[in-house]
Amino acid sequence: MSKSIGILGCGWLGTPLAKSLIAKGNSIKGTTTSEHKLEFLKMKGIVPYQITLTQKKVEGDIQNFLMDLEVLIINIPPGLRKTTTGSFVKRMEKLLDCLNKSKVKHLLFVSSTSVYGNVEGEITEETIPEPITESGKQLLMVEQKLKSNQTFSTTIIRFGGLIGPNRHPINYLKGKTGLKNGEELINLIHLNDCILMIETILQHNYWGLVFNGVYPYHPTKKNYYTEEAIKRQLTPPQFLNSKEKIVKKAIECQTFYVKSHQLLTSIVS
Known about the structure:
This is NAD-dependent epimerase/dehydratase family protein. InterPro entries: Epimerase_deHydtase (IPR001509), NAD(P)-bd_dom_sf (IPR036291), NAD(P)-dependent_oxidoreduct (IPR051783). It is a single chain. About 30% of the residues lie in helices and about 15% in strands. The protein is of the alpha/beta class.
């Protein structure tokens, strides 16, 4: 059954997600902050809107964007490194004011495993988040505000490190030396898996839930990035030797496995 879906943030994940949803017969509205990208989104079959969230207001035709939507997918990063964006929480509060006046009944918020901070051991959706970065703290605050809202039901996906076409940490780590934490375990997820998780939530109406999205493959950073560098014929990064005790820190989609029967299928590449 087709749905009318809005994607707030048509970037690296949002645009291919929209393309996949359209191919399955859904009607998609999408936003960008850049005027020059409107035609690009239109060519992809997306009904484009130029929307920008600020601490004072939501700029753009947010009313028409939200009109007649069954589902809204919020896929915008906190962007706290940019001095012009300001508080992510305050920007989302302005969006909430608009949402409370709309007829949107279901919301999917793309969050991050950074909300768990330095929690050690195996992490599941039942693990209490303990964010240590400002980005993680504000993401958790936004999660809480969305989940407590009574005008719509919210599902949270906490993705690990995103990898896929033209996006992989080894491109930034290649050739670097003196890197720490080489014995830590990686927690990554491929773009294809992100899309599959979101589509499964929409298909089966998994609302009011929290899901971790991380591929169940957790080698050490040292081993993984060395192998990835060699595979791409790049200079491997050099990690400092560590005598620290290795603690398993695997964040996996345990709840999602139960609900979706081995949802994650693509190979991390």
